[in-house]
TrEMBL record:
Keyword match Transmembrane: yes
TM spans (from-to): 6-25, 69-97, 109-133, 145-166, 173-190
Domain of life: Bacteria
Main subcellular location: membrane
Originating organism: Tepidanaerobacter acetatoxydans (strain DSM 21804 / JCM 16047 / Re1)
Protein name: Chromate transporter
GO cellular component assignments: plasma membrane
Subcellular location, record wording: Cell membrane
InterPro entries reported in the protein's UniProt record: CHR_Transporter (IPR052518), Chromate_transpt (IPR003370)
GO molecular function: chromate transmembrane transporter activity
Amino acid sequence: MIYLQLFLSFMKIGLFSFGGGYAMIPLIQREIENHGWLSASEFIDIIAIAEMTPGPIAVNSATFVGYKAAGILGGIVATFGVALPSLVLILIVSRYFFKFQDHPLNKMLFYGIRPVIVGLIFSAAVFVAQTAFFKEDIVFNLSYILKNFLCVINFKSMLIFAVSLICLVKFKINPILMIVISGILGVVFAF
């Protein structure tokens, strides 16, 4: 039964996700929470691993979640589920897209979809930030956090974030190098 749940959940994610892997993160998170397959911190770890490994983040995430929930076969089933809708849709759409690419309805459709993609990506960023910047035992409650700011903020994570952001934006450091440096900082701060 878990294999069917994994397949259907990830097929739904693959079918209704627009905007790439980061836009899929809130949908994957919701499915994981609904089925209790992983904790929030485990999911954040999977996102980090999926980001560092070659391939699309959605496929990597599906593989890791499926593996964690139901072993190797679970990983295969979840990966197939998330990839199948894209494969079918791209085969259908590619046949007609160029023919109707300049149609006003097509342009209006994409005009409406773009803002929701930004919202989905921002929602994923907020979820990751909640888990990364706040201590694990804190339920995200804005009023509680504002009242107890110094007690609930993980300042070491905030420092790694600030250093990473400055290095990536201002100094244009290679993202792979920044991941390695951040991992080393994490090890240093943990001791």
